[in-house]
Amino acid sequence: MRILLISGISGSGKSVALNVVEDAGFYCVDNLPPSLLPELITTLVGEGIESAAMAIDSRSAHLLTSLPDTISALRQDRHEVKILFLTASTESLVARFSETRRSHPLSHRLQRNVGTDRLSLTECIQEEREMVAEIQALAHVIDTSNLSANKLREWVKDIIQIQHAPLTLMFESFAFKIGVPLDADFVFDVRMLPNPYYDLELRALTGRDEPVVTYLKSQDMALDLYEDIRKFIEKWLPLFKKDNRSYLTVAIGCTGGQHRSVFMVEHLASYFRDKEQVLVRHRRLEQIHH
């Protein structure tokens, strides 16, 4: 059976992700206690269901310690198990809870060590991060900070369309002026390269446009940096595969996330696409276009 476990921080978009997966034909269960997962899978297999998704998060925090062993057992039974973890910056989460006027799911369960006052929203978010850290370490992470719901839906669709790939290599560009994405496994800084932004003919273009590509390819340091990053990934990627990682996210940043980082991501993705399952994301471009 194809199994997708969806977890993450409250307010990061788990409901959006679960709805996308359900629309794609998965049998979906929200807030499933991890201890019930093997029994549920056995039942669904008996009913002929081939794809299922379960949301598992801090609402079942006291049961999460058994989840890694449960996942290993399911994989040994030849089930395809993937984990999707959604997160966001604390600032983004606070803004979302304020907009919806909802309380954090843990606010009524957690109290301070002294007294009976409930924890603040920021404190609840921090406590939740610690509760689900072990799941995050096993998962493909999506940072939904500054990400629209429509773009999140698109990214989740990309993920569930991937089947039977031992590892998916994710390249994403970003803007340092906005912040380093929380979902990055490796971060490379390309701000030392000449910036097309200062050429008025190139300013409005992106690293996917031919004039910008031609400009950066004419810079020896850009080609040297590309080779260094490519060789680094090629050297260490086999070890990540041996570690049973399903995803590896390589984030490349420049100042505005429009030219240099986009160029580098596109060219690395083009090289590795012939050898690996590859996905590409351009965080700043997607924010500009929406």
Throw out a few tags for this protein.
290 residues; alpha/beta; 5-stranded parallel sheet; 4-stranded parallel sheet; 11 helices; 42% helix; globular; RapZ_C; Nucleotide-binding protein
Account of the 3D structure:
There is one protein chain. The protein has eleven helices and nine strands. 36% of the residues are buried. It is globular and about 60 Å long. The protein has helices at residues 14-23, 37-46, 67-76, 90-100, 121-131, 133-138, 149-160, 210-217, 220-242, 260-272, 283-289, and strands at 2-8, 27-29, 51-55, 80-87, 140-143, 168-175, 186-189, 247-254, 277-282. It is of the alpha/beta class and 290 residues long.
What's this model, at a glance?
The chain has 290 residues and is α/β, with parallel strands linked by helices. Helices cover 42% and strands 18% of the residues.
- What gap, in angstroms, lies between the N and C termini? 36 Å
Strand order of the largest sheet: 2-3-1-4-5
Low-confidence runs of at least 5 consecutive residues: none
Number of strands: 9
User: What would you call the shape?
Assistant: globular
Q: Write down the secondary-structure element order.
A: EHEHEHEHHHEHEEHHEHEH
Strand content: 15-25%
Number of helices: 11
* Class computed from helices, strands and strand pairing: alpha/beta
* Helix fraction by DSSP (H/I, runs of at least 4): 40-55%
Rounded to the nearest angstrom, the radius of gyration is 21 Å
Major β-sheet annotation: 5 strands, parallel
Mean pLDDT: 91
GO molecular function: ATP binding; GTP binding
Protein name: Nucleotide-binding protein
Binding site for GTP: 57-60
Keywords: ATP-binding, GTP-binding, Nucleotide-binding
